Amino acid sequence: MEDFRFATDLRVRFSETDAQGVVHNAVYLVWFEIARIAYLARFRGGYRGLREEDGVDATTVESHVRYLTPGAFDDEVCVHARVSDVRGARFRFDYVIERTSEPPGVLADGWTTHACVDSRTLRPTRMPAWLADAIREAEAG
């Protein structure tokens, strides 16, 4: 995961598994969101600050998950995240979910696309320059 400069660790809870004892497919999108919020928390006020200080929300407009290997209860996982394609109001997160407990391996990968909108009117608005700069700097290493 050398192309990813950010990651957050999770442990699969029993409630995240289905009747077959594997991680339910919808959970991967929740884990994407957990990583996305943690990623943004590194910058001025995080997602909450973006909304409260700048009046901007980041609405999810598209998502994709590719399931590779099933996860199970109590697996330790690492969600790798990065931001790419920052353009005006739009940006994209890429993710890789890796099991770090035995047996190690990639469970899933995917992406989400977001649009910045005014939190009151929900009309598209440019990403604040300070956030676009902070993301570029973080991704550059």
Task: Walk me through what this model shows.
- The protein is an alpha+beta fold and 141 residues long.
- Helices cover 25% and strands 38% of the residues.
- It has helices at 27-40, 46-54, 129-140; strands at 6-11, 56-67, 76-87, 90-99, 105-118.
- Strands 1-3-4-5-2 form a five-stranded antiparallel β-sheet.
- Strand 4 and strand 5 (105-118) form a beta hairpin.
- 27% of the residues are buried.
- The mean pLDDT is 96.
Briefly, what is this?
By secondary structure, the protein is α+β, with helices and mostly antiparallel strands.
Task: Tell me the distance between the termini.
Answer: 14 Å
**DSSP helical segment count:** 3
Strand and helix order: EHHEEEEH
Query: What global shape is seen?
Result: elongated
- In round numbers, the mean pLDDT is 96
Strand proportion: 35-45%
Can you give the helix content as a percent range? Answer: 10-25%
Number of strands: 5
Please state the CA-atom Rg, rounded to the nearest Å. 16 Å
The main sheet orders its strands as 1-3-4-5-2
Are there runs of 5+ residues with pLDDT below 50, and where? none
Largest sheet: 5 strands, antiparallel
Q: How would you classify the helix and strand content by structural class? A: alpha+beta
